[in-house]
Specification:
The complex is a heterodimer of chains A (about 550) and B (about 350). Chain A has 17 helices and no strands. With about 550 residues, chain A is an all-alpha fold. Chain A has one domain: Up-down Bundle (Cytochrome C Oxidase, Chain A), CATH 1.20.210.10. In chain A, helix 3 runs antiparallel to helix 4, helix 3 packs antiparallel against helix 16 and helix 10 packs antiparallel against helix 11. The chains are: A mainly alpha (about 550), B alpha+beta (about 350). At the A-B interface, helix 4, helix 8, helix 9, helix 10 and helix 11 of A face helix 1, helix 2, helix 3 and strand 9 of B.
Chain lengths: ~550, ~350
């Protein structure tokens, strides 16, 4: 009966039966274990979502291809988007937040450990429910009954008239369930950060990761609620005789779009802000300098969150809003570029004058900076509504948001994996395999997503299972598909590295990176109680103060 | 770790990245060539499309400059500030911030945004608030799963899938103003060389316009996922001279030809389920669920562009639509070979 760390477990491995160990993981309320469960869960779905992408790209490698039927393809893009957002990136980020926040603020656990466990299992169940849809109707032949309405499930395509059967209900119910899990985690993060910081750690002294996850958690609560409301209204339409979105009965398709995008836009900031958090922790340590402009980084993030609540209809530039509405959303969307750009400049300024160690976490962070710059700039292009009148719903937009999701978020998340793997497992990962993962993924990512902009410019819309030859899209689609195989190889290397290093890696010690935040002051992996004595801090970098008593940060802050 | 090779590695990395970047930039510059694609947004032939291209090039120029500056700074950091092999292990000077620098890089982006915003607002107004001139061609476009219905209310023409409009004469402007409706789910009308896309949303009428300055056939397709065969809901817009357009209108407004030679096919058509969905003016067929077939043979394609309009394809479409457009709403009609030949012969007379 123990919630001890993995390493002490290994010593007494023979004495604890496997069933008992698994049972401990199932009933755990320890934030570190729940964090690891979230992360492993999301890794499994990353592979599944990647396979769905591969199926689509193989179908699109040439025009009029016959790899899968239109029905299967339409289910693939729906499941790929839904999986990647709700069951890969969100749980991955919640997992890291869960693991790191108490350690970084000097607490013993999250504020509500049982709510924490409950939220994880809700999310996990939601994903399983969604994938159960493959087994319905025709079974595994013809991709079963999986939803095929697109990840944003526009009305009235989702009504009983146009979506016969239960595929849409799998989408609705699984996200409703996991949405409550997300809200639980968000409440937990906010309470933990506001109430459980160690003595001396004012809000102005807590690590940027804590600040950014606080902002993310507020956005989750603001964003998930309208989505859940809309999903309940959809269920009322489909089963209880409602007509909210039933256009044949006077309902509104556009109101679904408003509800969805009031969720959908803050959602993408929910996804990217924790990615910023990873970069804000990794770049300083590997440049050997404090983050440049901490107060501006906090202020910029809070600004981004505020403005993010006001830009949603830039996803609706083509639905026929009047020119005043379109112009308003152009203004707010362009405005959000300012605090976002400021953050990029701050990271660059952190590197400037530093001594950069090009280890795998830093390589991924540099890739992130390059790719996020491009993603932000294509976003500025798209913020000009007339440009979106052409390129909205085209492969240009698909390229843009994959640049953010894969090029920025996934890159910093890989960096986070390598950076905190030693802390979580007690072992160092293999640096050569890490670099191989990085380069393979860079090549694959750029082959796919750089060239994907071009078919969009040449008129190729998204969500089409095939396309006409003679539109000039053929070669570009082929290059895009080839890149996918490099990315797949990179993921294989990544998983192999994690497994190999877990079993055979060198012992990492408590502070392999010479870091400055509190998680590095305890053992790797930390004991169940995190810290023997609750630390007391006087600055933003308590370990810097300890290591440099002659020149501590608190003299300068 | 690595020593002298390390510095070379960083320089080579920077060079490779710059090389990689040139590819998409070169590709972006190339699209001025119309033959690259018939749906290239950078080959506009109509005023809204031209305005969007001009704005895009301006925004692209601004963002390209920002990219070059910030990217150069990133490359400089990576090349100049790497840990040297002969590093003494001391930490570099810790710089926590700089009010002047941070103010500068806040104010300058705000100014850039103001400029971009004003340029954009002008284009939005010029397209969305354009007045409809007296001679505008009025068309009602109704989106269906998975085909396009076009009605010219003033000219009393109903057709499907292939839109005909007159080329614009600057002396007597005759732009085409489309009212966009939908019979079922959301669709979107996107013919890149003519205009940006506007959605067709049920219970939410929209309008758009274009004034093509060159005759020709312009391609596009539905750009809002509408169900199984969204991919083959293609658009064909024929921009014709005024005389040709008037002649087309005149032909389209006539009722269907009658011919005794195909009376058997006509009888089968009119006594089976065909007339539940299809209309042929001047006969009992007045179904509205599917495309109007009165002048079917005046179109170059069938099934909204999915196949060329040949007798073989027409026959195959009636026999087994799944072979051409699986998931379309046209059912396999279950006719015998003889009946198929007769019906196809009848349809072939609907010029």
């Amino acid at each position: 009966m123990s919630t001890d760390s993995i390493s002490t477990h290994r010593a007494g491995m023979e004495s604890i039966p496997l069933v008992a160990k698994l049972h401990e993981w199932v009933i755990t309320v320890d934030h570190k274990r729940l964090g690891i469960l979230y992360i492993l869960y999301s890794l499994v779905f990353l592979v599944i979502g990647g396979i769905e992408a591969m199926i689509m790209r193989i179908q699109l490698i040439r025009p009029h291809n016959n790899f899968v039927s239109p029905d299967v393809f339409n289910r693939m893009f729906t499941m790929h988007g839904t999986t990647m957002i709700f069951f890969v990136v969100m749980p991955m980020l919640f997992g890291f937040a869960n693991y790191l926040i108490p350690l970084m603020i000097g607490a013993r656990d999250m504020a509500f450990p049982r709510l924490n466990a409950f939220s994880f299992w809700l999310t996990a169940f939601g994903g399983i429910l969604l994938y159960f849809s493959f087994l319905g109707a025709n079974g595994l032949y013809g991709a079963g009954n999986a939803p095929d309405v697109g990840w944003f499930a526009y009305a009235p395509l989702t009504s009983q008239t146009f979506s016969v059967g239960h595929s849409t209900d799998f989408w609705t119910l699984s996200l409703l369930v996991s949405g409550f899990g997300s809200i639980g985690t968000a409440i937990n993060i906010i309470a933990t950060i506001l109430c459980m910081r160690c003595p001396g750690m004012t809000l102005g002294r807590m690590p940027l990761l804590a600040w950014l996850n606080l902002v993310m958690a507020v956005l989750v609560i603001l964003a998930v609620s309208p989505l859940s409301a809309a999903q309940i209204m959809l269920l009322v339409d489909r089963y209880l005789g409602g007509h909210f979105f039933d256009t044949q009965a006077g309902g509104s398709a556009v109101i679904w779009m408003h509800f969805f995008w009031i969720f959908g836009h803050p959602e993408v900031y929910v996804l990217v802000i924790p990615a910023f958090a990873f970069a804000s922790e990794i770049i300083p340590v590997f440049s050997r300098k404090a983050i440049f402009g901490y107060p501006a980084m906090v202020a910029a993030t809070v600004c981004i969150a505020f403005i993010a609540m006001s830009v949603w209809a830039h996803h609706m530039f083509t639905v026929g809003m009047n020119s005043n509405a379109n112009t308003f959303f152009v203004l707010t969307t362009m405005a959000i570029a300012v605090p976002t750009g400021i953050k990029i400049f701050n990271w660059l300024a952190t590197m400037w004058g530093g001594k950069i160690h090009f280890k795998t976490p830093m390589l991924f962070s540099i890739g992130f900076l390059f790719q996020f710059l491009i993603a932000g700039l294509t976003g500025v292009m798209l913020s000009a509504a007339p440009f979106t009148w052409h390129l909205g719903n085209s492969y240009f937009v698909v390229a843009h948001f994959h640049y953010v999701l894969a090029g920025a978020i996934l890159f910093t998340t890989f960096g986070a994996f390598y950076y905190w793997f030693p802390k979580m497992s007690g072992k160092m990962y293999n640096e050569t395999l890490g670099k191989l993962h990085f380069w393979l993924f860079v090549i694959g990512f750029h082959l796919t997503f750089d060239f994907m902009h071009i078919p969009g410019i040449l008129g190729m819309p998204r969500r089409i299972y095939t396309y006409e030859p003679g539109r000039g899209w053929d070669t570009w689609n082929m290059i895009v598909t080839i890149g996918v195989f490099f990315q797949a190889a990179a993921i294989l290397v990544f998983v192999a590295n994690l497994l190999w290093s877990y079993f055979h890696g060198e012992i990492a010690g408590s502070d392999p990176w010479d870091g400055w935040t509190l998680e590095w002051s305890t053992s790797s992996p930390p004991p169940a109680y995190n810290f023997a004595t609750i630390p007391e801090v006087r600055s933003r970098r308590p370990l810097w103060d300890r290591k440099h008593p002659e020149d501590p940060d608190w003299k300068y802050e | 770790m690595r020593n002298r090779g390390f510095t070379n590695w960083r320089r080579r990395f920077a060079a490779q990245v710059i090389g990689l970047l040139c590819l998409p930039v070169a590709a972006l510059a190339a699209p001025e060539d119309r033959s690259l694609s018939p749906t290239n947004i950078f080959a506009p032939v109509s005023t809204p499309a031209h305005s969007i291209v001009e704005l895009s090039l301006f925004v692209l120029a601004v963002t390209a400059i920002i990219f070059v500056i910030v990217f150069s700074l990133l490359v400089y950091c990576v090349v100049k500030f790497g840990k040297r092999a002969d590093d003494d292990g001391r930490e570099p000077p810790q710089v926590y911030g700089s009010n002047q620098v941070e103010l500068a890089w806040t104010v300058i982006p705000v100014l850039i945004i103001v400029v971009l915003f004003m340029a954009t607002a002008r284009v939005i107004a010029s397209i969305q608030k354009a007045a409809q001139p007296h001679n505008a061609i009025q068309v009602i476009a109704i989106g269906h799963q998975f085909w396009w219905e076009y009605r010219y209310p003033g000219l009393k023409v109903v057709t499907a899938n292939e839109l005909h409009v007159p080329v614009n004469d600057p002396a007597h402007p005759s732009p085409t103003f489309l009212t966009l409706l939908s019979a079922d789910t959301d669709h979107s009308f996107w013919v890149p060389r003519l205009a940006g896309k506007t959605d067709l949303i049920p219970n939410h009428p929209n309008t758009m316009w274009f004034d093509p300055q060159q005759t020709g056939l312009y391609l596009g397709q539905c750009a809002q996922y509408c169900g199984t065969q969204h991919a083959k809901m293609l658009l064909r817009v024929y921009v014709q001279s005024r005389q040709e357009f008037d002649r087309w209108i005149e032909e389209q407004s006539r009722p269907a030809h009658a011919s005794a030679a195909v009376s058997e096919g006509q009888r089968i058509f009119e006594t089976t389920a065909c007339i539940n969905c299809h209309a042929v003016t001047g006969t009992v067929a007045d179904g509205r669920f599917g495309p109007d077939l009165t002048h079917l043979m005046s179109r170059e394609t069938i099934a909204s562009g999915a196949a060329p309009n040949t007798p073989e394809n027409l026959r195959l479409w009636i026999q087994n639509p799944e072979a051409i457009k699986p998931g379309s709403k046209m059912p396999a009609m279950g006719l015998s070979d003889h009946e198929l030949d007769a019906v196809t012969a009848y349809l072939e007379t609907l010029r």
